[in-house]
Amino acid sequence: MTDILSIAAFFATEGEAAVVKPLGEGFINDTYTVFLKDRTTPDYILQRKNHIVFPDVPAMMDNINRVSRHIRAKVSDPLRETLTVIPTKDGKLYYKDSDGNFWAMCLFIKDSMSFDRADSPDRAYQGGLGLGTFHRQVADFDGSLTEIIKGFHNIRWRFKQWDASLERNAAGRVRELGNEISWIESRREKMLSFWKLYEDGTIPVRVTHGDTKISNFLFDSRSGRLLCAIDLDTMMSSTLLNDTGDALRSYTNTGAEDDPDLGKVSMSMDMFEAYMKGYLKEMKELLAPAELEYLAFSGIYITYEQVLRFLMDYIDGDTYYKIKSPDHNLVRTRAQYKLLTSMEEQLLEMERKISFF
Predict the structure, then answer these.
(1) Whole-number Å distance between alpha carbons of 351 and 295
(2) CA atoms in the 13 A half-sphere facing the CB of 204
(3) In this predicted model, what pLDDT tens digit does every residue of 52-91 receive, in sequence order?
(4) Which of 7, 110, 157, 335 is spaced 20 to 30 A from 266 at the CA atom?
């Protein structure tokens, strides 16, 4: 068993690390709080980075460090309003142990809180404000970031995977999925047309967060004001519409991502409106015309991608997503498709509301 305390000792902390405690459920990374001697509150966050999900941890940490330093120059309280990467004692941004595991450390942001989910329009507004603030802070970042996950939200890349999956038919399920496959194929050209706008530069390349759920934003535990974005592992250069679309997919769904009761699944216009008000408060004046034009569509794009990915995994025999039943990925596919169609039906109203913000 790894001695976590000994791992913490490799980092340049301001004092000797005395206690480490697990933090959170650790779906991707294993996360710990680190306490210095005679401290009752944590001083640092230590993470074992999942180098299967993130095969180039050194590049990922370089992305995080460069963007965090860029934000630090813009904020009034840099120790609380952006992440502070703690290097190892020999100056590296990560430590690689004898088992090949990668570890990284950042400063613990004190007197902060986060929310597990956006369960009201007010929470949705706060989440939109969080992403909008992050995008505003990095809008003038000079330089590109390493692609941490190959083809992330790149629908052209996803279609290559999709076509190969259909040809393999690894689990022998293609024949039973005529309706579901038609959902993907009937929208293929529309999605590729959107992505081409990014490829030809009509939609600009930006710094993107990559995981925009509300739990990845910290707020001051006393005043409630926004502090900063966290969990920057999936940051890379892409279109910010990937971030807004991912947020809309999660924030506006009235049901669960894998809801078997499709009657519960739809897009909430109230949540959409609240989220967009928060986001555009920070970003409206900085968006390119094409970004503003496709802002509402971004939710459709990312939700469509998720329908494709769930269905592709079902066709492949459930090799990527963890499942709770043999048809779990098919249930997910159908629930996300119901959300997709609800978004499509409300697209014009979404665009109308954005025009008034």
Answers:
(1) 8
(2) 13
(3) 889 999 999 999 999 999 999 999 999 999 999 999 999 9
(4) 157
